[in-house]
TrEMBL record:
One of its GO terms (molecular function) is GTP binding. CDD domains: MMAA-like. The lineage of its organism: Bacteria, Bacillati, Candidatus Sysuimicrobiota, Candidatus Sysuimicrobiia, Candidatus Sysuimicrobiales. It holds the Pfam family MeaB. This is Methylmalonyl Co-A mutase-associated GTPase MeaB. It comes from the Bacteria. InterPro entries: AAA+_ATPase, GTPase/Isobutyryl-CoA_mutase, GTPase_ArgK, P-loop_NTPase. Residues 46-196 form the AAA+ ATPase domain. Keywords: Chaperone, GTP-binding, Hydrolase, Nucleotide-binding.
Length: 312
């Protein structure tokens, strides 16, 4: 049997080793993983995929760690895809998130995987969507995707998660204004973490005010909560908000709409990746040189590449 299909069988049987090996295969961007993803697809769609984003230092990993603790007490299986910055030396992930989640390292009901961004913008790694599919088929009830913490441009998570949690802290000054142009617009649940250090009420009020000025988001009014994740305070309320949001999505037929948009994006990314793989680097460089010399315009060059790719 194909190695990838063997791994897919292992994932469905609940093997963490098979899940880890398959995700590694996905990270290598190898087509060898495709048969496994095809086999697993019909077993996906059951997990609640929760994105956790926000500025660096807001305590995203600590909050996820606290959420896992409560979920495990409820008997639920949890997966985590923690996206870390790419190491400038090895090209791999700087495993800060996994280190902060060592509390669950021996728990068979928790699967934590760190990934490097590999230069990708938007806060996610290239293999994030595939890893989520693997953990969904593996049997996780809730899958957290913790983004790298890139700032207001980090909005890719909105197209990857069912529910987006935006974590901030009270003392970042004009942090709400900094974030509002992008990331503030995608949050379904807002958490003012480290709320024991003062000005938490002010930060929450600023978020509430900004949400009041934002365009109407239909049936769901984003929740604004306070927490001290390091002490587990406010965690139960956050989980309740996540459940209410999921229920609201289902009730109004929006969960399927979000997932359809996610699949559409995945299809486009696959097309782009496979199309570009058909174009030789030499041909690309040749056309770029001609455009730089003024012998050709960029649109004609792109059309030539598209024709070459379509004919490949």
């Amino acid at each position: 049997m194909n190695v990838a299909l063997t791994l897919a069988d292992g994932v469905l049987q609940g093997s963490p080793q098979a899940a880890a090996r398959l995700i590694s295969l996905l990270e290598s961007r190898s087509d060898d993983a495709v048969p496994a993803l095809r086999a697993l697809h019909r077993h996906t769609g059951r997990a609640h995929v929760v994105g956790v984003t926000g500025p660096p230092g807001a305590g995203k990993s600590t909050l996820v760690n606290a959420l896992i603790r409560v979920l495990r007490a409820q008997g639920r299986r949890v997966g985590v895809v923690a996206v870390d910055p790419t190491s400038p030396f090895t090209g791999g992930a700087i495993l800060g998130d996994r280190i902060r989640m060592q509390d669950h390292s021996t728990d068979s009901g928790v699967f934590v995987r760190s990934m490097a961004t590999r230069g990708r913008l938007g806060g996610l790694a290239p293999a994030t969507a595939g890893a989520v599919a693997v953990l969904d088929a593996y049997g996780c009830d809730v899958i957290f995707i913790e983004t790298v913490g890139a700032g207001q441009a980090e909005v890719d998570i909105a197209g990857t998660a069912d529910t987006v949690v935006l974590v901030t802290v009270p003392w970042l000054g004009d942090s709400v204004q900094t974030l509002k142009a992008g990331i503030m617009e995608i949050g379904d649940v807002f958490v003012v973490n480290k709320a024991d250090r003062g000005e938490a009420d002010k930060a929450a009020a600023e978020i509430e005010m900004m949400l009041g000025l934002a365009p109407d988001r239909g049936a769901w009014r984003p929740a604004v909560l306070r927490a001290v994740a390091s002490e587990g305070r406010g965690v139960e309320e956050i989980l309740q908000a996540l459940e209410r949001h999921r229920a609201s999505l289902i009730e109004h037929g929006l969960l399927m709409a979000r997932r359809q948009a996610r699949r559409r994006r995945e299809i486009i990314e696959i097309i782009e990746e496979r199309f570009l793989a058909r174009i030789s680097a030499g041909r690309m460089d040749e056309l770029a040189t001609r455009v730089a010399r003024g012998e050709l315009d960029p649109y004609t060059a792109a059309e030539e590449l598209m024709a070459a790719g379509a004919g490949g």
